[in-house]
UniProtKB/TrEMBL annotation:
It is found in: Membrane. InterPro entries: Aquaporin-like, For/NO2_transpt, For/NO2_transpt_CS. It comes from the Bacteria. It is a multi-pass membrane protein. The chain crosses the membrane at residues 28-48, 60-84, 105-133, 158-177, 189-216, 228-254. Pfam families: Form_Nir_trans. This is Formate/nitrite transporter family protein. Belongs to the FNT transporter (TC 1.A.16) family. Its main location: membrane. Keywords: Membrane, Transmembrane, Transmembrane helix. The keyword Secreted does not apply.
Length: 258
């Protein structure tokens, strides 16, 4: 297995490749939109597949939500897409290794978030047009409860839940780079995602879809302003989780390998 230093170098090179791809603005925006849509598909599976358990208060609802939501990150990794939350670890590592500038790394994360938002809104519009969330359906009731719960949290709680969320996402992305077997990679992704969903942590890109669906389907009390503020706080927490907690920890650990 690779050393930590070798894995950091691989992650940094991935950051360089992403930076070069971003020179094609339209193509890279499309890649970000695909990732946002793939995560949105995970949200759709979660709401449509687990709504009965959730609404009726099953103790296993959280675990099942996580297990089905994992398809989103699996699609990002194996179908291809530019996901901001993993980029929050990868781009700073590229900057730390002096392969790109810190300013470039920051703009890349913003660029990914923009693409993810476009994809999240687009997939939400398609789902809404398909009438998946009909009023009084179990799917709608779950969407209402989940989004209302997210927007009812204090911003400090959202921030720390977002840190923990991206710790799990970035640990998954870090680990699969060190693995060869694709089935094992899918298992690791699924387990890591199950942890953050079951615990109720905050993923900015998943929230983009949840909030978009709530607004488009008329969930009471959900506004653009509240949704935007919650997304900004979640993004900040996700950045700390990916860049500082995961990326920073492995950079420090790599210095002790010698």
């Amino acid at each position: 297995m690779e050393t930590l230093t070798q894995t950091i170098e691989r992650q940094a090179e991935t950051g360089v490749a992403k930076s070069k791809k971003a020179n094609n603005f339209g193509g890279y925006l499309a890649g970000g939109a695909l990732a946002g849509a793939f995560v949105g598909i995970g949200c759709l599976f979660m709401y449509a597949g687990v709504s009965g358990m959730y609404v009726h208060g099953s103790d296993l609802a959280g675990t099942m939500m996580g297990l089905v939501f994992g398809i989103g990150l699996v699609l990002v990794v194996f179908a291809g897409g530019e996901l901001a939350t993993s980029g929050m670890m990868i781009m700073p590592l590229a900057a730390i290794r002096r392969k790109i500038s810190a300013v470039r790394a920051g703009w890349m994360i913003i660029f990914m978030l923009l693409g993810n938002l476009v994809g999240s809104i687009a997939i939400s519009a398609l789902i809404t047009a398909a009438h998946v969330f009909k009023k009084d359906s179990l799917n709608y009731q779950m969407l209402d409860a989940v989004v209302s719960g997210k927007l009812g949290k204090d911003y400090s709680e959202v921030f720390f839940r977002a840190i923990m969320c991206n710790v799990m996402v970035c640990l998954a992305m870090w680990t699969i780079v060190r693995m060869k077997n694709e089935v094992a990679q899918i298992i690791v992704i699924s387990w890591a995602i199950t942890v953050f969903v079951a615990a109720g942590f905050e993923h900015v890109v998943a929230n983009m879809t949840s909030f978009s669906l709530a607004i488009m389907n008329g969930v009471p009390g959900v506004t653009f302003t509240d949704s935007a503020l919650a997304l900004v706080v979640a993004a900040a927490g996700n950045i700390v989780g990916g860049m500082v907690v995961v990326g920073g920890s492995f950079v420090l650990a790599a210095r002790m390998e010698a």
